Amino acid sequence: MSVTPEDKFQTGLLLDLEQVVEKELDRHMSMAKEWFPHQYVPWGQGRDFDGPLDGEAWSLEQSKLSLEARESLIVNLLTEDNLPGYHNAIATVFGRDGAWGTWVNRWTAEENRHGIVIRDYLTVTRAVDPIALERARMLHMETGYEPTHGDSFLHGAAYVAFQELATRVSHRNTGRASGDPICEQMMARVAADENLHMIFYRNLLGAALELAPNETMRAITDVVKAFEMPGAGIEGFMRKSVVIANAGIYDLRLHHDDVLTPVLRKLGVFELTGLDGGGEKAREELGEFLAHLDASATKFETRREERRARKAAREG
């Protein structure tokens, strides 16, 4: 099997970034705080369900959460459930040796806590139908996970830099929307992990931008233009996303202002000098896309406020 110039480029870049990964891994380990999922779950609220233990079947009135908070928590949990697929994806791109492999395994171990704590909370508090949730988990995991952002290292690094921040925003806002201080505390703890993960990947992407500015700029533009959350394969995702967006938990404005813009600003994407024709073209595409997204976000916000005003008028 012949080695292509692209393969050589990817291998060389991975080797050049090894020291960056070591540095970022050390920084992460110095900042990461040990925490335990069981300490964030109100076990005293739990009681047996129907089935072998002959407990009480779930019914909607048992949930104290709004429809919007339930849908968001379900999407967040099902997204976390596909961790085996994400592990395989980043291990394939980053490799399993040296500091790269150490990071991949550490990231996976930390991410696994998120699914554990959210599921335990939802089950103990009877916030969602546990049978429907389990069936959704089975279907989602059987569908599997295939990255849609390209299979190159640079595309993978760009995607996770944005995706981790998007997940942090979604988790944090879901906790706030829950109306439950316990849930909000739990989701804030999960979001703190996601923030550290974002910093790792963002700094890695920044180093790649210094080493290979034109190729990295193209990867960033490709990822931003085609971005979708890793849970996009969840059955009914579009419907759930509309509910979540209408509630202001995660919408186009948040995606533009709180996810894309901060990462791009930190990387200095629009101040970068020395790009060749291809790099400049990619940056121009990125700027045009962001302007279009900003306009779409404004339009969505306007329509949402109009819908809310009409609803308030009917109810008033």
Automatic annotation (TrEMBL):
InterPro entries: Fatty_acid_desaturase-2 (IPR005067), Ferritin-like_SF (IPR009078), RNR-like (IPR012348). It comes from the Bacteria. Pfam families: FA_desaturase_2. One of its GO terms (cellular component) is cytosol. GO terms for biological process: fatty acid biosynthetic process. Keywords: Fatty acid biosynthesis, Fatty acid metabolism, Iron, Lipid biosynthesis, Lipid metabolism, Metal-binding, Oxidoreductase. Its cofactor is Fe(2+); Fe cation. Gene3D superfamilies: Ribonucleotide Reductase, subunit A. Fe cation 1 binds at E80, E111, H114, E194. Binds 2 iron ions per subunit. GO terms for molecular function: metal ion binding; stearoyl-[ACP] desaturase activity. Fe cation 2 binds at E111, E164, E194, H197. Belongs to the fatty acid desaturase type 2 family. PANTHER family: ACYL- ACYL-CARRIER-PROTEIN DESATURASE-RELATED, STEAROYL-[ACYL-CARRIER-PROTEIN] 9-DESATURASE 7, CHLOROPLASTIC. Homodimer. This is Acyl-ACP desaturase. It comes from Actinomadura litoris.
